[in-house]
Write a structure and sequence with these properties.
133 residues; alpha+beta; Sufe protein. Chain: A; three-stranded antiparallel β-sheet; binds FE2/S2 (inorganic) cluster
């Protein structure tokens, strides 16, 4: 499998690995095709993501895309973070082998799941925000 230099870098040196014990939003998603799991932790202040960490049990592409996802959402409002798609993650990485595109979906889905959890906790109807993206 040929991975780009950026994928290898984010796989070997993943950014923001770990948990946030007092996270404001936590999202866990799984890929039914391979059984891999990605868990995203968010710290949110005034509607902005001030910290993000992840734990991924998965392939190299899943770990690299998790790492990129956390980098892309830090400092963004939850509305802007919801606009991030797996295409943005792939673009950041340069490329992903076609058979690994599905792995990048976990990154997008884990962001949305964590924001949905945050919205539920503070009593915002997340469907209204999420539906618009
Ligand atoms: Fe499962 Fe990549 S093979 S996420």
């Amino acid at each position: 499998m040929n991975y780009s230099k950026k994928v290898v870098d984010h796989f070997l040196n993943p950014r923001n690995v770990g948990e946030i014990p007092d996270a404001d939003g936590v999202g866990e998603v799984g890929n039914s095709r391979c059984g891999d799991i990605m868990k995203m932790y968010l710290k949110i202040s005034n509607g902005t993501i001030v910290d993000a960490k992840f734990k991924t049990f998965g392939c190299a592409a899943a770990i690299a895309t998790s790492s990129v996802a956390t980098e892309l959402i830090k400092g963004k409002t939850i509305e802007d973070a919801l606009k991030i798609t797996n295409k943005d993650v792939i673009e950041y990485l340069g490329e992903l082998p076609p058979v690994k595109i599905h792995c990048s979906l976990l990154a997008e889905q884990s962001i949305k799941a964590a924001i949905k959890d945050y919205c539920n906790k503070i009593g915002i109807n997340s469907e209204i925000i999420i539906k618009n993206y």
